[in-house]
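name: query_chain
kind: protein
chains: 1
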Amino acid sequence: MTNDLHGLATLAMRGLDPEYAHGLAIKGLKLGLGPHAPSDPPILATELAGMRLPNPVGLAPGFDKDAEVYAPMLRAGFGFVECGTVTPLPQVGNPRPRLFRLWQDRAVINRMGFNNQGLEAFAQRLAHRRHGVVGANLGANKDSVDRLADYTAGLRRLWGMASYFTINISSPNTPGLRALQTKAALEDLLGRLIATADSLPQGVAVPMFLKVAPDLEDAEIEAIVETVAAAGLAGVIVSNTTVSRPPLRSRHAVETGGLSGAPLFGPSTEVLRRFRQAAAGRFLLIGAGGIGSGADAYAKIRAGASAVQLYSALAYEGPGLVVQIKRELAQRLQADGFRSVAEAVGAE
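structure:
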């Protein structure tokens, strides 16, 4: 009955402005109105860079930008939650409207522009984390005079609070940000981050991941792989939203911004395969982009992802989707004779 009510709430909010509907969802979760998922089957338990996960299905950043509802989303059944993107200073982001549902394509276009309440508010909430794997997605302010310093500031402030860090240099909605994916800029950024991490109190190792765009050529992938491997990062998240436009039917297809959802599944999974081939096991991969079913999650894992993340599909299916995905994923693993998620990673 509870899942039915959450499904009805999702249907009711479909007629609302998407950003307003998202705000209502956050408020509802803060009031304790989120679902409570049953325990996961043992076959879904896995490990990611030393972090023990009850299942490999994570919530991608963008949903919980300000670390307000990570606990309810863990209760809803996600194996891990990534909050953010957070920048050192609060910023309002780009002008509205900036978020569009493409109903016919089961997709979303956004040009949010890292709207968030800033690092201090984020840190105060994350400090209350008591359990579960919760990551922090770090970004840079649009008007920053030293974007690399913005990332190191986030690392310093949230050290000891976040389970892991994601370095987001691939959003298409902050001008010039993707230039940090070039080899020289990336070497500089990762070098400063590693030096910062080495200067902080050392206890349990805190993994760092790099989040990349799906709009990369083979030479760019090779350069990123070599730089990430040399820096010793835990892994790469493939991928962020795309600026490309496959054939789309919805009227909002002409909007500028990053495209996510179902049309991104194929391209992002192909880029994931290319990263797996180039990395040759030197670091982990997390698959994101277009996941809306257990079959999608399973395909990402077989393509090389040790874990997956989703967000856009929740706008269409509601919070009960994660339970369905996990059930389907467990069934597919068992049907193919795998005893664990780890056994299926890269099984293609």
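note: The first helix runs from residue 2 to 13.
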